[in-house]
Each structure stands twice: as C-alpha cells, then as structure tokens.
Design brief:
CATH superfamily of the largest domain: Medium-chain alcohol dehydrogenases, catalytic domain
Radius of gyration: 20 Å
Largest sheet: 7 strands, mixed
Shape: globular
CATH topology of the largest domain: Quinone Oxidoreductase, Chain A, domain 1
Number of strands: 15
Strand content: 25-35%
Structural class: alpha/beta
Helix content: 25-40%
Number of helices: 10
Length: 331
C-alpha cells in the first residue's frame, strides 16, 4: 500500500482531491520499460495547482495522481538503463496529467523519462529545484547558446518571485550577469536581492499595453509571464538581444508586433521543459548540480507534507507563494 493525492471528477465536472491509500497493483502498467520508484520528494508547481483545484483542464483522464516531478529510488525496473537502488529524477512527459505522477509514495513511469540524480544533489535539493530550477537552467542555456554574455548588458527576469523566476535570478547572478527582477511583490525586494538581483522593477511597468518599439535596455530576457509582459520585454530588448519565453502567468496571448524582430534583430526563443530531449535534460541537471548556489535553495524552498500540499495548490494559483514548495510525500 502507498499514500497518494488522488483526484477524481464528479458528474458536474468538479475535481475532488483527497489523500488515499492505494494498493501497489493500482500503479499504471507499461508494455515495456516500466520503472517503479519509491518517491522521496515531489513538489507543487503551477500546473499541479491547476490539476488539484480543477481550475484548468490539465488532467487528461481520471482518476489521477498529480505531481509533474519527483525524486526517489528505483525499486523495480523493466528498463535496461535502470536497476533497483538507482536514484532518479523525473520532470514532465505528461506525468501528473496523462500518467500518474509524483505526489505519492510510489510512482511507475517509462524508464526513458528518468534522469539520474547527480551525486552532488540530495533528493531534497533536486526537488527544491524541481521543474522550476530545471526550466530556469534551460532558459540560461538558451541565452548562452545565442551568445548572450555577462558583459553584453542587463538581463530582465519577469515573475521573479515565482519558482522559475527565482532560480533564473540566482543562476544568472551567480554566472556574473546583472539581473533586473520584475515583480508585483515589492515587499520581496530583500528576498530577490538575496538571490543576486541588482535591481527590482515593478511589474506594472511591463504588464499593460505598450508601444511596439520602446527604449532599448535588455541584452536578454527570461520571461515566465507571457501576454503584455512578454510583448513589452521584446519591445525594449536591445539590438540583437535574446528573449526566452517559458511561462504564461499573465496569459497565453502575445499582443506584440514584428517590429523588434525585423528592426532590431531580436530573437524570441521558446523554452519547453515537458518534452525536452534527454541530452538537454541531463546537461541542465548536471549544470544545476555544479552551479546552483546552495544558499539559494534555503531561500527559495519551503517544505510541506502530502496533506498540506492540497491546501497549497490554490495559494500557488493566487500568486501567494514565494519560491518553491517541496512536498515530503512520506509525512
């Protein structure tokens, strides 16, 4: 038996979340390559908040165990790449949406979806980073692949007190970039500066409709927000600058013009963490193990129990959570 957050949907399409004891036989089966993991830690991400509350139809079938990432130990494997005792991480691949996820004491997934836990990280460290830290590192890697260097100018990070934003601020600052953190939570200035932000910017300056071209400022951008914020970030990026887009906290729309791209040569790079190829995942986690400031983990992460995770879900959707929520699934 194992305990899990268990989601069901009623006849009137309301999602119900509860802690439920499930038999091991309830774990999903895979035709080949299935791996069973004893989960140590999971997290609550924005998508998990949507799944648990039912605010958006991210869950594709019911019943569902949510949790888009987890870290734990392999207990049984039908996959050539994994054996019992291996320490592994999972992020994305539709887990917690189409396949049972990590907010449980056990999980069974396709072995192709797993990444080895780097020796330098504990299971808690890995989930303190989780999908947010991994996505933040993918954004850093995208900026660097496009040639953005610390000496090129300021980097804007939007939604900076969120999980991805917090890690982007910390990682970029540690690499020597001058980071401007955009947030609507001015009371968190101390938090953001402790992560390395050189300047705090009120998000109101970016979140309303703006001109197609604005004063050039940013050498690079990590945008977790979308909508007008992304449009304004592009409009104020310097000639040849690079904007990475990985989120939609403000909205999925992109009310922009082509002006920044055809008049300033700005590049807009989409960053996907869910289906990213294995080699890129392994590189991101290896770099997190080397480059993620350990002091930042203590600032960014807070721990809750499996029961407390349910009540945390609406808080993350309301923007009332700073940093990361790590879930100890065994308490």
């Amino acid at each position: 038996m194992f305990r899990a957050i268990y989601l069901t949907r009623s006849e009137d399409n309301q999602t119900h979340a509860e802690i439920k004891a499930l038999d091991d036989s309830a774990l999903p089966a895979f035709d080949a390559g299935g791996v069973t993991v004893q989960v140590d830690y999971s997290t609550i991400n924005y998508k998990d908040g949507l799944a648990i509350t039912g605010r958006s139809p991210v869950v594709r079938k019911f019943p569902m165990v949510p949790g888009i990432d987890f870290c734990g130990t392999v207990t049984a494997s039908e996959h050539a790449g994994w054996k019992a005792g291996d320490k592994v991480i999972l992020n994305g691949w539709g887990v917690g949406e189409a396949y049972w996820g990590g907010l449980a004491q056990q999980a069974r997934v396709n072995g192709d979806w797993l990444v080895r836990l780097p020796d330098a990280l504990t299971a808690f460290d890995a989930m303190a980073a989780g999908t947010a830290g991994y996505t933040g590192m993918l954004c850093v890697m995208a900026l660097q692949r496009q040639g953005v260097q610390p000496g090129d100018g300021e980097i804007l990070v939007t939604g900076a007190t969120g999980g991805v934003g917090s890690f982007a601020v910390s990682l970029l600052s540690a690499l020597g970039y001058r980071v401007v953190a955009s947030t609507g939570k001015q009371a968190e200035e101390g938090y953001l500066k402790s992560l390395g932000a050189a300047e705090i910017m009120d998000r109101a300056g970016l979140s309303a409709p703006g001109k197609p071209l604005q004063k050039e400022r940013w050498a690079g951008v990590v945008d977790t927000v979308g909508s007008h914020t992304l449009a304004n970030a592009c409009a104020s990026t310097r000639y040849g600058g690079v904007v990475t887009a990985c989120g939609l906290a403000q909205g999925m729309d992109f009310p922009a013009s082509v002006a920044p791209f055809i008049l300033r040569g700005v590049s807009l790079i989409g960053v996907d963490s869910v289906m990213a190829p294995r080699a890129r995942r392994e590189e991101a986690w290896a770099r997190l193990a080397r480059e993620m400031p350990r002091t930042a983990l203590l600032e960014i992460a807070q721990e809750v129990s499996l029961e407390e995770a349910i009540s945390a879900a609406p808080k993350i959707l309301a923007g009332a959570v700073k940093g990361r929520i790590v879930v100890d699934v065994n308490r």
